[in-house]
Task: structure prediction
Amino acid sequence: MLDDLFSYIDKSVDEYLEELKRLCSIPSVSAKGDHLEEAAHAVASIMDSIGMRTELHETTGAPVLTSWLDVDAKHTLLFYNHYDVQPAEPFDLWETPPFEPDIRNGRIFARGVADNKGDIVSRIWAIKSFLESDKEIPVNIKFVVEGEEEVSSPHLHEFVEKNKEFLRADGGIWEFGGAGIDGIQDAWLGLKGILYVQLELETLSHDAHSAYACYLPSAPYRLIWALNSLKDKTGKVQIDGFYERVRPLSDKEKQALSEIDLREEDLQEFYGITKFLDDMKGDELKEAYYNAPTCNICGIDSGYTGEGSKTVLPAKAMAKIDFRLVEEMDLGDILGKLRHHLDSEGFNDVKIAWHKGYPAAKTPIDHPFVEIVKKSNKAVFGHELRIQPTSPGSGPLYLFKDLVPMVSIGCSDFDSRAHSPNESMPIDNFVLGTKRLVVIMDEMGRW
Amino acid sequence: MLDDLFSYIDKSVDEYLEELKRLCSIPSVSAKGDHLEEAAHAVASIMDSIGMRTELHETTGAPVLTSWLDVDAKHTLLFYNHYDVQPAEPFDLWETPPFEPDIRNGRIFARGVADNKGDIVSRIWAIKSFLESDKEIPVNIKFVVEGEEEVSSPHLHEFVEKNKEFLRADGGIWEFGGAGIDGIQDAWLGLKGILYVQLELETLSHDAHSAYACYLPSAPYRLIWALNSLKDKTGKVQIDGFYERVRPLSDKEKQALSEIDLREEDLQEFYGITKFLDDMKGDELKEAYYNAPTCNICGIDSGYTGEGSKTVLPAKAMAKIDFRLVEEMDLGDILGKLRHHLDSEGFNDVKIAWHKGYPAAKTPIDHPFVEIVKKSNKAVFGHELRIQPTSPGSGPLYLFKDLVPMVSIGCSDFDSRAHSPNESMPIDNFVLGTKRLVVIMDEMGRW
Result:
């Protein structure tokens, strides 16, 4: 019944790979504020080209793009995506330049291709397949495409507050997703929250000769002592009350988890490790993965870090830290506890220079839309969708919480290296992921 | 009697400032291996131009330049200098570019001008003043100018072993020196040793998305825990046996120190601090300054350190550390204890990627050459030279220990910012320091 559409998709792979290459050539790095408008317009023009209506909504940050196709259907499907990408550093670890997309070994390589420009193109492609086949689209379509997801979506709430009616839908597909290490397709129903902070410290008015370490305070050492006090060697956060709002997993969630195999050995091989943090295994590892908040150093910098040696006592030191938060944990509460912790440990000179983030959220496991996605996945991929109650990653899902039941699926796989050098997407999944969307739309027409 | 020479010096200031500017325009950064041969040849050509003989000695590192003028005098004066400089980073803190020398407010600004290219030129200038005044030079002159002092002189020992006879002299002037915070000229008779190490750690085969901090080991955090274990918040090194070879100060040294005022308040104002490390004061501060080994972080780097945020779990982390050593402490011994410490704290994955350094050394306080320098200083500067039994800084003095009694004096002052942005030398001291050398040579002729 959907053969015409599948046939169109199979014939037009090269065309959409070219479209994707063009989009991935734009270095829309939100951390640097680079090329964001350009990327928004590029996405809008693809949507325009297939007859969708588009609108750019200003925020105090990057604009939010909406696009829609109202076919007066009973149900509405909403896509959430973002046109920004992570920074590509360190550049020298890329086999081909991050913003010059390259196809090799059945994959397409570029910064942002897996997270999430490949999925933007896949979603448009799925809609196009209905139009090309003269088959009526069975659902109303809406897109929300923001430009600051990779910097914690600091302005999306402005858009959401003004456009709640637009956002109401019967089903929602979150920005990206894909197959796990075993090739099985995952659906993520929740996302952890995030609190990203930059800690800064200045102990001297200027760098000093390192000989004076005998009597001058050291910025990097004070920062190290402060960071050391935040987390012990088992990974346990030492901030007083940090875990106080963490709820245990529900029975339904535990049931879902019992069907999940984290494939510990494969993960270890992938990361080149022989054991996990604190030598965790089995249920303890699952508990950490699905229900533990974290404290992670994304970057630390002080003094001379070039080649060879420089004997300097640095005046300044800086660290970038992200805390992943689980449901019920509150941003302001954790930020206050961090400040209190630093002060009580004697580090009131360690400044929280800036912070941003958002809380965690989950879609109920038993929502009928989740069933539609499961059924569609089985039809295309031939195996059962693996339901993940939440992802260890973050996204501003909380903003959509009472408006649309979101499920995160997409065209990536375990080797896609989102946020890392040599990010890529398998072309097979690009095709199958697009077909799965076609089936979801078809199923929603008969819901 | 030396009026002609002083008059020549006063008339030729601009000429030698130009010479100094040319030398400081060469970015001879030994940490990067940049422009070293060029700087060696530039120094040699100045020496050639005043009729000295020069020779470049190959080592497995940068070449060592020697230069001499044998006038068949009874005594010989040796100068030790270096043609390399520290890296100039961070460039953005310089008011004028580090390798485009600038004169303002009675000072000359450039990387390396205080440490120690100004003193190289001053020493040649002093010799020239005898030649220009048709006055016979009263001492034989020798120069040893190496090119790797700022990276701990890893190859100077090769030269010294082969050229011990050349190095024997009745008095030696060490690379640089100058006035303290109170404007009083200092003479440094000793130097601490140094052990510089680069610690490196790799916990994953590639960077991961920071969401996986829930189960993956963190390179920056492991490095932080390791560095935290090396030193406590009072500055005390926690490596077992680290202090075991540290001898208390001798009575003569204590006597010299009792005449020294560290001018704590001025120092604090200069560095923009309200208290020293561990709130040290008075004798405790002097003890740290003259007799404490240190453990200092010169640089630390891991993950994303650019603008804004990137959510990454870095696979690698690196720290550059220098230990300052006092007499009797042995490089290999401390290195072994560091390795043992890291292993016993569970950080056998923290590698000592490379190390280098040398031990401490001192010239006896009561050597007659020290008396000549004191007398000459009084004649030119009008105040008593302050004798510092040792400097908190380092240099390969140990290589010269039984060959020549070295005294470290020069043209800098307390605001010279060696190793830091906006390094400079006061032009007044450039002139007076040169005249002091003339008197020292004259005094050595009557020794």
